[in-house]
Amino acid sequence: TVPAPASYRDWAWHDIIVPLPPTVAPTAKLCTPTLRPRDGKVRLDLPFDTTVEAAPLAGHTRAIGADWGYNTLLTAVVAEPGPDGTVVCSGRALRFDAAGVSRKLDRLRAHRETLKTKITHLERLAAGRHSGLDPASTAKLDLLREEHQRVCARIRNL
């Protein structure tokens, strides 16, 4: 109820009804949600657990085991059943390397910041003049804003 709650009295209970998307199974166990205020809206992160049936033990010739990590985004290994019923793998780890995507993302962010700096500079110039910018500078500002939006879209899609 206040911007910086200091005691239990500063809090209030609220019921928030959230329709679940069709991708969430009715049998899913909902976990503790996280509310994130952003751009004047409140976004809800609602994790859930679902039961997955075990794969049948017969009929498969290969399996893949994967692990999400902090240093390596994804590490996996392929295994096959051995002649004596054990699981055999070559030991060759498969890794997903996101270094190329990260470099591209860094380049796009730097380009976006450069564009934003130029836009801010031209906007300050326009604010400091009574008559605004000349037509050539106005066209340049519009072009920079357009390019900034395109770069932001590329970053979001990446």
Can you put this structure into words, describing what you see?
By secondary structure, the protein is of the alpha+beta class. The protein has two helices and eight strands, in the order E-E-E-E-E-E-E-E-H-H. The protein has three domains: 8-49, no CATH class; 63-96, no CATH class; 99-157. Strands 5, 6, 7 and 8 form a four-stranded antiparallel beta sheet that branches. A two-stranded antiparallel ribbon has the order 1-4. A two-stranded antiparallel sheet has the order 2-3. The chain is flat, with a radius of gyration of 26 Å. The mean pLDDT is 87.
Short synopsis of the structure:
The chain is flat.
Topology:
Layout: E1 29-30, E2 34-38, E3 41-45, E4 48-49, E5 63-68, E6 74-81, E7 87-89, E8 94-96, H1 99-128, H2 135-157
Antiparallel strand pairs: 1-4, 2-3, 5-6, 6-7, 6-8
Helix pairs in contact: 1-2
Keywords:
158 residues; alpha+beta; 3 domains; 2 helices; 34% helix; flat
Number of domains: 3
The structural class is alpha+beta
Count of helical stretches: 2
Main pleated-sheet profile: 4 strands, antiparallel
Whole-number mean pLDDT: 87
Count of extended strands: 8
H/E element order? EEEEEEEEHH
Poorly predicted runs: none
User: How far apart lie the N and C ends?
Assistant: 39 Å
Shape verdict: flat
Give the helix level as a range of percent.
25-40%
Tell me the β content: 15-25%
Write down the Rg: 26 Å
